[in-house]
Specification:
Length: about 140
C-alpha cells in the first residue's frame, strides 16, 4: 500500500513561533501558531487536521460496512470534535466526538447505529488513536 506523507515546519519558541503544515499531495498548506492551536487565532492546528482525517476515515468505513450489509448509502456527513485539554501539566487529546448524519434507504435506526458503532471502532484512524476516548452521535436523515 502507498505511504502517505505530510510535513510541518516550526520556527521559534512555542508561544511566539509559527509554522506551516502541508499535505504531500500538495492540495493543502496552511500556517499554524500557538494562537491557532490554543486560542482562536488564524490558521490551522494539528487537532483540526486529525479531526478531518478521522471524519473522512469513519465516513468511508461506514459506507463500506453498509454496502457489505446490502445497504446503499446516499450520503454520510461526519464532523469530528477534537478536545485538547491540559492534563497533568501537559496537553493531551482527551476525546474525539464523531457526529454523523446519513441518508441510507431501507435501513432501520437500530441497524444503522450498530453499523456506525462498528465503523467507529474499526476505521484505521480510530484504531491508530487507541489511547483516546472516541464517542459517537449518529442519526439518519
Amino acid at each position: 500500500m502507498k505511504k502517505r506523507r505530510a510535513e510541518a515546519v516550526w520556527r521559534g519558541n512555542l508561544t511566539e513561533g509559527n509554522g506551516s503544515m502541508k499535505l504531500g499531495s500538495g492540495l493543502f498548506e496552511s500556517s499554524y501558531s500557538f494562537s491557532s492551536r490554543f486560542e482562536e487565532g488564524e490558521g490551522t492546528n494539528p487537532e483540526e487536521l486529525l479531526g478531518a482525517a478521522h471524519a473522512g476515515c469513519f465516513s468511508m468505513a461506514l459506507s463500506n460496512i453498509l454496502a457489505e450489509e446490502g445497504f446503499a448509502p446516499e450520503e454520510i456527513q461526519t464532523e469530528a470534535e477534537v478536545s485538547l485539554d491540559k492534563v497533568d501539566g501537559g496537553f493531551k487529546i482527551t476525546e474525539i466526538k464523531l457526529i454523523t448524519q446519513a441518508r441510507v434507504p431501507e435501513i432501520s435506526e437500530k441497524e444503522f447505529l450498530e453499523h456506525a458503532k462498528n465503523a467507529k471502532g474499526n476505521c484505521p484512524v480510530s484504531l491508530a488513536l487507541g489511547g483516546t476516548e472516541i464517542s459517537l452521535e449518529a442519526s439518519l436523515e
